[in-house]
Write a structure and sequence with these properties.
Layout: E1 8-12, H1 18-30, E2 35-39, H2 46-55, E3 63-68, H3 74-80, E4 86-90, H4 99-106, E5 115-116, H5 121-136, H6 140-155
């Protein structure tokens, strides 16, 4: 169970999604943000999904990052059961390379928003950063760590095309 010190939940439809979703966790670690990861399948563990989503706010979470592939109902279903912001990460699928996941997550009906990131690893990494940005709105120390992260990222880009 999360505590107030664990503001981000990272949920995914399958353990096979972890190699992608771990990039969100890595960014959160880099920024000093606590997280907890769980497998919560919209299709195979629907009762687990209902329990998680309806209890997420009371459990102390502030942001949910939800990754799913294929039909990718997890982010939207989680969003339908909580007022917390849900960041959806389309996990690359074998059949359609993640386009199916992207469309399933991004095409939410009005009134049930899911912030949808890019397909795959870039989307997962950006979800971790975006979750931190949301939390930084009410956490000045985290805002300072984010500013330092952005500055370091900028400074790491060489201007020259030669070594």
């Amino acid at each position: 169970m999360a505590t107030s010190a664990t503001p981000v939940a990272i949920i995914m439809g399958s353990r096979s999604d972890w190699p992608t979703m771990k990039l969100a966790a890595d960014k959160l670690d880099q920024l000093g943000v606590a997280w907890e990861a769980k497998v919560v399948s919209a299709h195979r563990t629907p009762e687990r999904l209902v329990q998680f989503a309806t209890g997420a706010k009371a459990a102390g979470y502030k942001v949910i990052i939800a990754g799913a592939g294929g039909a990718a109902h997890l982010p939207g279903m989680a969003a339908s059961m909580t007022e917390l912001p849900v960041l959806g990460v389309p996990v690359k699928s074998k059949a359609l390379k993640g386009m199916d996941s992207l469309l399933s997550i991004v095409q939410m009906p009005a009134g049930v928003p899911v912030a949808t990131l890019a397909i795959g690893e870039a989307g997962a990494a950006n979800a971790g950063i975006l979750a931190a940005q949301i939390l930084a709105l009410s956490d000045e120390a985290l805002a300072e760590r984010l500013a330092a992260f952005r500055l370091a990222q900028t400074e790491s880009v060489a201007e020259s095309v030669e070594d």
